[in-house]
Please model this.
Amino acid sequence: MAVVSTPATLERALPAMDNAEVLRIRNDFPVLDQFVNGRPLVYLDSGATSQNPVSVIEAEQEFYEQRNAAVHRGAHYLAVEATEVFEDARQTVADFIGADFAETVWTSNATEGLNLISYALSNAALWAAQGRGDARLKDLAVGPGDQIVVTEMEHHANLIPWQELAFRTGATLRYIPVDDSGALRMDLAPDILGERTKVLAFTHASNVLGTINPVQELVSLGRKVGALVVLDACQSAPHLPLAVKELDVDFAVLSGHKMLAPTGIGVLYGKQEFLDVLPPFLTGGSMITTVTMERAEYLQAPQRFEAGTQRISQAVALAAAVNYLAETGLERVHRWESDLGQRMVAGLESIPGIRVLGPAAGLDRIGLAAFDVDGVHAHDVGQFLDAQGIAVRVGHHCAQPLHRRLGLTATTRASAYLYNTTDDVDAFLDAVAGVRSYFRV
Model:
């Protein structure tokens, strides 16, 4: 019997990434070829913002040089060309995350996507109360007595919009706590979710702990109580294969600037059955069918949620970034970054006075590590590393409740990507080993 090769099996057949290949990849990233404070730049802050390869920079530049025009608004040549590349980019990104074309909505970033969902759900209650829109809105409406469930490890972008939704609607916000190591208390989750739970929102991978959460188990819990499931994929989409339909989440968000694309572009995935009936978040031009002086009727998704002039060049550049990741092979990228993450954690755990957050060495995580240096503030650690040309993140990483739960106010975070080598990690570890002695702790 013949064996049919799928893209996934072909990718697994490719050799694992190594330092030699990564050094070739680095040539595609001009910003990495510089010195900081007299030292070669070691960029370990991709968890905040990744760098851009030449192909992405050129894609955005080429749009402005050759096709710059408003989309969906003109019959002239440039407008048609701009619309084609804009919608081609949507299809490219949809394919990348395993979604359908009409289920892929452009946003400015993941934060806007999450706010879009939360405001659409509160608007659903207003529309349903007035008998406006689809009859299914009544089932989607959030109101007094309903529950919204998040986790204690969420980025503020996946916490505050739900706090505000609860405030606007009279719903109650609950959360799945973490234990002393930062792991979700999944044993408590079934009792936290209930028949009044309307939304379950959680991160795929923690931007502080590096934890990869049990998506299937969480989705199953949400399905049992009939909740909408919202996935924050900001720290997963750039680093590991993402198939939103296979995960069976109802909504997912991601940010382009964390996955080799420019700032100002993000994606909201939503199941068609929900996007086509939810009220829009922003209103204006380009998302309407008929307008009178009294009211308007709205297009179906994705244009239903894309009011005004769109992020055209950024969408084109995001498609170029997606193609770059696909050509490299996301499964290969994930394996390489996982190795770098394990190298970071094992090295940090061997340094006296260092507390590493999240899974211990040997346990699955994405390629980042947040840590606390006993007796030295995270901002001082960051400045010490910067003096040696090493870029890391310091602060609470937009996760104050998680830090508070773990007894900290701030940490230092190193996050790797496909352009980082083992030498980068070793240079970082050597520098961290000298922090406490430098500050005479």
Q: What stands out?
A: The chain is about 40% helix and 15% strand. The CA atoms of residues 334 and 396 lie 25 Å apart.
